[in-house]
Amino acid sequence: xxxxxxxxxxxxxxxxxxxxxxxxxxxxxxTLVDHDGHMSAPVREAAQAVVAAGHEVMxxxxxxxxxxxxxxxxxxxxxxxxxxxxxxxxxxxxPELTDxxxxxxxxxxxxxxxxxxxxxxxxTAKYALEDEDGNFLSTERFQDASFGVEAIGVxxxxxxxxxxxxxxxxxxxxxxxxxxxxxxxxxxxxxxxxVGWTAWLDIAAAGVTKASALxxxxxxLGVDPSRTVAVGDGRNDIEMLAWANRGVAMGQxxxxxxxAADEVTKSVYDDGAAHVLHSLL
Length: 281
What we know:
Blueprint: H1 6-20, E1 23-26, H2 41-52, E2 56-59, H3 65-74, E3 80-84, E4 89-93, E5 101-106, H4 112-121, E6 126-131, E7 136-138, E8 152-153, H5 156-160, E9 164-170, H6 176-186, E10 191-195, E11 200-205, H7 210-221, E12 228-232, H8 238-243, E13 246-249, H9 255-260, E14 263-264, H10 272-278
Parallel strand pairs: 1-2, 1-12, 7-8, 12-13, 13-14
Antiparallel strand pairs: 3-4, 4-5, 6-7, 6-9, 9-11, 10-11
Helix pairs in contact: 2-10
């Protein structure tokens, strides 16, 4: 026979509340913000409403930490978790922490083999690397808003010898299809990679994706797999959409992203994310 004390009754109440929570993973670029970096008022308000409802809302993005924090602030998350660098960095958020967050996991790797192989195949591409201390090293003054910090120009050998959390390769002279061909020719090993909308390649440690980081958090939080939702638009969201019980692709997503999802919403320019978020309230 179980006797319910005041504390055990409270625990049961907490468990009931936890069982009603959803774990909602939201991509940023192309999902919460358009490709100019603008978040519309309907999307912002819908995201804030879902956060205020008490669900486990978390950003899951390819962006680095400093480029992710403003989005977290915009939608009103002050406690919980966030996934950056395509799963390479996981944050815990809480107002009592210094700066409001702490890094609880960072997946690093040796970028040397991948960089050398890629440079042989894509000699005119630009290369950037986020090191284990959060610095960005780059060739040819390569800068991007997703870095969150100003990249430091270095020679290629210095980059090859660094320890990486994230590697980015960009070329204005190649198409995404040509990037895919180059990768297939090289046969990248020991890393995880995804090709973006443009000729943009993101590389992380082997086995590291948004989905792998989110699964670690799901287990940590004790959320049932049936209570998971994810929204995204890019090829780096494919694993995340397949992971979620309800995976939603944005209306402008490529065919292979749509194929990984359970449903498709409107495009980012038609506030597709807001439609999904309202359905969760």
